[in-house]
Write a structure and sequence with these properties.
With 147 residues, the protein is of the alpha+beta class. The protein is built from five helices and five strands; from the N terminus they run αβαββαββαα. It has a five-stranded mixed sheet with strand order 4-1-3-2-5, with helices on both faces.
Length: 147
Amino acid sequence: MSRYLHTVRKMLQAYAYMSRAREPLDDIGLTRIARQSSMFNQTAGVTGVLLFDGQYFFQYIEGPQDGLDAVMGRIAGARAHAEIEALVSRRIQSRLIPYWSMEFVPAEGLELSSLAEANWDDLLETPTGATGIDKLMYLIRRHRDAA
C-alpha cells in the first residue's frame, strides 16, 4: 500500500488558462505578480510561465494535484484579472517547465490568441500540426534566446 501512495504523490497535473486584466498593469505591477507567484509556487511545488500582452494573461502551470489546487485557488481569488477560461487540465508524465517556479514572458496579442485557439487536447505535436504546448514552448524558447 505504501508503494501505491508513493506513486500517487508523484502524479503531475498541468493546467492552462487565459484571463483578462481588470486594469492596465505596468512593469512594476507585472514584476510584483510574477515574484509573488514564484514564491507561492515554490512552496506548492508548482512550476510555470505567465504571459501577458497588455490586456490578457495566459498561464501554464504544472505540479502535484494538491499544489495545483492551492495555486488555482489563489488564481481564482486574484483581483488583477477576470474572465478566467480554462484551456487544459490534465495529467502529465513529466514537467515541461521544470526550472521556473514562475517566469514572466512578454507576448503580443496575436500570440496569446494563437495559444487560446490552439489544440490543447494533446500536449505534444500531432499529425494535424502544432498543439498549444508546442506554441507555448516556441514562445518560451524565443524569450529565453532573446535574454
